[in-house]
Design brief:
Elements lengths: L1 E3 L2 E3 L7 H8 L7 E5 L2 E3 L14 E6 L5
Parallel strand pairs: 1-5
Antiparallel strand pairs: 1-2, 3-4, 3-5
Protein name: Sulfur carrier protein ThiS
């Protein structure tokens, strides 16, 4: 199993980091930092990173204001 923001999703062979985020139902935008097992991933690399089936993914929304 893979977790995305503490939600378990089913792993399938060949799954990428981008697919896991999409299947979790989480929204991803340019103001979101993607962590996987304590490593930060750039948005343009999410489709390249293959998963192994036990990853812990966290999405951190950046909020700014004045």
């Amino acid at each position: 199993m893979i977790t995305v923001n503490n939600r378990e999703i089913e792993f399938h062979q060949g799954m990428t980091l981008a697919e896991a985020i999409k299947e979790s139902g989480e929204m991803l935008d340019t103001m979101t930092i993607v962590f996987m097992d304590d490593n930060v991933f750039q948005h343009d690399k999410l489709h390249e990173k293959m998963l192994e089936g036990f990853e812990n993914i966290k999405l951190l929304k950046i909020v700014s204001g004045g």
